[in-house]
């Protein structure tokens, strides 16, 4: 069985919502024979540009695997992944590394900041490595959006967990990537700091036109998104637009042991 989920097409004069990333008939399997485990089972999905998409599902549902495949961090067994109009499945390592560096941003649960660099140096590090100068106007806008203007000279050990994650968010935004992927980006934060970071992610979509895909297990975090995709047994089994925390929690309660919606 193939599960196909597509974004609603909107826009005046017969226009279409632009697609930032897509998966077509994507299978990700580990092992072979009796030990073969299918993590993604013929997934079809479009990620809308300029929107915030959350991916949810029970443990082992394939949500992190889907994000890693969409982001080019993991290979697929079969099928195609596109970032905009570029097919990344089959790209050589050097080309894939360049694409991830130039067109994709990442926000991880563990922050991944260098302790010897201050906040500003951590934000610009990927561009420094690539030999690119930051757009100062854009960088200033990103720093203002995430509320770090007064903390740029501080090193990570002088920042709170929430502030460190805001540096990680700013680092992902600063290079103006086409799409940002977040893997449980508030998982190490308390509820207040988590709400701050999620608010900044929401603002980056609304005010900066960013596209964000976030894996989360938290209904409150998912409620900041425009759309929630639900995975189970490696398939997209449901979706929700304009989610609320209560609606997401209620939907999750209706997944049975196999992950299907009752």
Automatic annotation (TrEMBL):
Pfam families in the cross-refs: ABC_tran (PF00005)
Residues in ABC transporter domain copies: 21-258
Highest taxon of the lineage: Bacteria
Spans through the membrane: none
SMART domains, per the entry: AAA
Keyword Transport among UniProt keywords: yes
Molecular function, one GO term: ATP binding
Keywords, alphabetical: ATP-binding, Nucleotide-binding, Transport
Gene3D superfamilies per the UniProt record, alphabetical: P-loop containing nucleotide triphosphate hydrolases
GO cellular component terms, A-Z: membrane protein complex; plasma membrane
Keyword Nucleus: no
Name listed for the protein in its UniProt record: Peptide ABC transporter ATP-binding protein
